[in-house]
């Protein structure tokens, strides 16, 4: 807070001389630097009374000296107006008049009763302050006045309306109260509000009247009591909670005259005592304050010093007016007053700007500001702002957060607008995501902050559910892995079993009339079109090879490779392959030899033609010579005949080789078919066994009607070499009794349809596809074979 540190300003005012008063010897020097001076000279006749008979003069410094002719308005302007300004600014101020009775204290502070121009500092200050308040519309002011009289250490409220009816002694005493911060409070002193100059002046007159009523010749209240008229001012700027409070004390002290002690021998002693004890204490306080490093100031010794504590050496702009009645008889008192004034002038005060925050005002102010801001926001956003976000807004925020979190762009931002509620919600939501990353986003998105506990519980349940699902999936994977291992083992074992039983080949022809139940409705059901696509992709041999892949499942492929590897027939196939290679090579040689022989024959034919041309030319040139037998030509013809024999011999050999090769090819094909048939039988059997072992894996009820399903077909065989494949494959499948067996009516067979067999479908679309693809592929081979063997 602003602080003004300055000494108490001390003025002097000299009362005009009365008509019969003898002037004292004094001089005023207004020009003296640094301060004007008042020199008082002790008159010679008075000085004669003293022992040393010495003429004395005293010089005193004052802020300003108002001589006898000084008028009230000038005194006000010079002394009171600056203090009033400070009070209006929020500082405390005190103006007190000190002097002997009759020196003009009351005249200066309150004024003379006869003329308007004699108005003193109080009415002029009131007038000035209310004038200033009216001019200043930037602040709201409140004005109160109090009027305290202190008589014999008792305080009286001069504004108490009971004054008229009661004796001073019967009125409630004003008590000094001190709070924990050592602030002085006056109990029973009324603060009367004065909204204007007139009201304030009425209160002043009321107090003065009460004072006069109480005054009797016996108590001489006017000279023995102190009067403190206080203007209480508070101000604040509109809309601000900062309150400024200031007080202006206008103090009319009791007469400072002392009781002169008459010394032995009738001599007047210079030592005198205050009539009013409280002034003695006032002087003690002043002396203490003037001394440096004095820690204890005896304010509490009197009520007057207690009340004026802030005005003396405290938070106040204080001004003293020393009133002097410098007639010849009052020189001593005047000198005493001036001496007192000089001490007071040494006191430095620290005036502090009295600002305080009114909590009630602050709350009211903040509430209003909040409402204003809400209104403003509603105006700008077009929406009435409530403390809670709506369910709709929360869902929108959830979407924004989700989008933001999924955005890989490092520059992406989450913009929810300038709404603290939304920003706070986003942070809470992020925290939730951070704290439970295992919980699905969906769960979080539906969370409401107000139902956090319930949602967390739900999230926990969801977590447990998912953990359970995960465990279930783990178990299922383990089962599948075991199955795969078992399948591999069985694939190896199966070779020996099947080798012993030597299952026959299945020969069938797929008919367009074959209808697979639920082929259209069930996803697990075998799809005919799929089978066709598949078979077309695998009918290129070698069938079921890993290299060709196709749509055969990995397990099936691997199983077939193992199966084939271990099968004895594969040796036959390999032998046949070797033999075929030999025969092909032989045939190739024979082919080359045939070409060679043909070329030789053609060459010999050419030679014969040449010989005949030569002979003809000779006959033309030599007509006498007759065309007789040519031994050369005959020789050439013989050679041609020999070559032709050779050609026929080689050609027959070649033709024989071709038959053998074709036969070998058929044999290889046959063994291959047998191997595949055995595999298919074994595979379908394994598939069925797996389903029986792991019934939980078959979850679709459709498979009951689909599995097991048997397709019977037939295929003619034109060569006896395939006769061993025509017997029905032994089918010990217990599910076979459910099979659908039918004869294809469209089948054009040249052999009786005795070569029928049943192929079980597993109900597994992949396995079924594999099997049917195999069937289709083999069918193509057999058809080709049939043609080639015709
Ligand atoms: P105090 O209050 O100090 O006892 P007062 O103010 O009552 O003295 O003054 C005593 C008398 O002197 C009053 O009648 C008052 O009108 C008159 N008086 C005092 N000072 C002046 C002055 N400056 N000009 C004219 N009259 C004055
Ligand atoms: Mg007086």
TrEMBL record:
Renumbered residue ranges of the record's region Disordered: 717-761
Protein name, entry field: Kinesin-like protein
Protein's gene: Kif6
SMART domains, alphabetized: KISc
Cellular compartments annotated: Cytoplasm, Cytoskeleton
PANTHER family: CENTROMERE PROTEIN E, KINESIN MOTOR DOMAIN-CONTAINING PROTEIN
Organism whose genome encodes this protein: Menura novaehollandiae (superb lyrebird)
Biological processes, Gene Ontology terms: microtubule-based movement
An MF annotation (GO) of this entry: ATP binding
Family matches, as Pfam families: KIF9, Kinesin
One cellular component term from this protein's GO annotations in UniProt: microtubule
């Amino acid at each position: 807070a602003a602080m003004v540190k300055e000494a108490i300003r001390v003025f002097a005012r000299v009362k005009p001389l009365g008509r019969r008063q003898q002037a004292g010897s004094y001089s005023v020097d207004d020009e003296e630097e640094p301060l004007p001076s008042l020199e008082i000279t002790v008159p010679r006749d008075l000085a004669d009374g003293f022992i040393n008979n010495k003429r004395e003069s005293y010089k005193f410094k004052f802020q300003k000296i108002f001589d006898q002719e000084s008028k009230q308005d000038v005194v006000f302007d010079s002394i009171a107006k600056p203090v009033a300004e400070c009070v209006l600014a929020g500082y405390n101020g005190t103006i007190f008049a000190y002097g002997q009775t009759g020196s003009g204290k009351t005249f200066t502070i309150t004024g003379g009763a006869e003329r308007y121009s004699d108005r003193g500092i109080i009415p002029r200050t009131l007038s000035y302050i209310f004038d200033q308040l009216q001019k200043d519309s930037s602040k709201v002011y409140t004005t109160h006045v109090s009027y305290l009289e202190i008589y014999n250490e008792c305080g009286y409220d001069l504004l108490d309306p009971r004054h008229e009816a009661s004796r001073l002694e019967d009125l409630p005493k004003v008590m000094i109260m001190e709070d924990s911060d050592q602030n002085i409070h006056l109990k029973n002193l009324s603060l009367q509000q004065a909204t204007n100059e007139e009201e304030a002046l009425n209160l002043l007159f009321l107090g003065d009247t009460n004072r006069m009523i109480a005054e009797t010749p016996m108590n001489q209240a006017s000279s023995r009591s102190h009067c403190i008229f206080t203007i209480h001012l508070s101000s604040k700027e509109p809309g601000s909670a900062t309150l400024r409070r200031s007080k202006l004390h206008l103090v009319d002290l009791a007469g400072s005259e002392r009781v002169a002690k008459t010394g032995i021998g009738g001599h007047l002693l210079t030592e005198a005592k205050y009539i009013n004890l409280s002034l003695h204490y006032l002087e003690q306080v002043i002396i203490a304050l003037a001394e440096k490093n004095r820690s204890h100031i005896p304010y509490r010794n009197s009520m007057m010093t207690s009340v004026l504590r802030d005005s003396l050496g405290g938070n106040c702009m204080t001004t003293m007016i020393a009133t002097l009645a410098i007639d010849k008889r009052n020189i001593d008192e005047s000198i005493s007053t001036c001496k007192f004034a000089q001490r007071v002038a040494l006191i430095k005060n620290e005036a502090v700007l009295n600002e305080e925050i009114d909590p009630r005002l602050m709350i009211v102010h903040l509430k209003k500001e909040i409402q204003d801001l809400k209104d403003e926001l509603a105006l700008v956003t077009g929406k009435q702002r409530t403390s809670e976000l709506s369910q709709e807004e929360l869902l929108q925020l959830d979407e924004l957060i989700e989008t933001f979190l999924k955005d890989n762009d490092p520059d992406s931002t989450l913009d929810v607008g300038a709404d603290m509620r939304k920003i706070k919600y986003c942070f809470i939501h992020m925290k939730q995501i951070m704290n439970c990353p295992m919980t699905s986003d969906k769960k979080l998105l539906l969370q409401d902050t107000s139902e956090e506990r319930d949602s967390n519980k739900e999230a926990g349940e969801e977590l447990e559910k998912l953990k359970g699902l995960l465990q279930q999936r783990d178990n299922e994977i383990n089962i599948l892995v075991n199955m795969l291992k078992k399948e591999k083992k069985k694939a190896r074992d199966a070779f020996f079993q099947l080798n012993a039983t030597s299952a026959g080949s299945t020969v069938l022809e797929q008919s367009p009339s074959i209808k697979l139940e639920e082929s259209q409705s069930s996803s697990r059901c075998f799809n005919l079109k799929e089978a066709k696509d598949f078979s077309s992709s695998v009918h290129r041999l070698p069938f079921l090879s890993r290299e060709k892949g196709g749509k055969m499942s990995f397990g099936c492929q691997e199983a077939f490779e193992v199966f084939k590897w271990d099968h004895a027939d594969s040796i036959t196939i390999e032998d046949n392959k070797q033999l075929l290679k030999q025969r092909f090579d032989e045939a190739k040689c024979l082919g080359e030899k045939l070409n060679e022989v043909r070329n030789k024959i053609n060459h010999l034919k050419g030679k014969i033609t040449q010989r005949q041309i030569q002979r003809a030319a000779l006959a033309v040139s030599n007509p006498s010579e007759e065309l007789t037998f040519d031994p050369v030509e005959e020789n050439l013809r013989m050679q041609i005949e020999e070559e032709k024999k050779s050609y026929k011999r080689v050609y027959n050999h070649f033709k024989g080789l071709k038959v053998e090769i074709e036969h070998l090819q058929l044999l290889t094909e046959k063994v291959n078919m047998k191997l595949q048939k055995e595999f298919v039988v074994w595979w379908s059997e394994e598939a069925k066994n797996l389903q029986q072992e792991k019934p939980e894996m078959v979850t679709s009820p459709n498979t009951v009607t689909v599995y097991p399903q048997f397709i019977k077909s037939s295929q003619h065989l034109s060569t006896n070499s395939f006769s061993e494949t025509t017997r029905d494959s032994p089918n010990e499948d217990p599910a076979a009794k459910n099979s659908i067996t039918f004869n294809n009516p469209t089948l054009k067979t040249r052999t009786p349809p005795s070569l029928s067999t049943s192929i079980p479908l597993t109900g597994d679309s992949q396995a079924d596809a594999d099997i049917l693809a195999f069937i289709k592929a083999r069918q193509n081979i057999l058809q080709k074979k049939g043609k080639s063997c015709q």
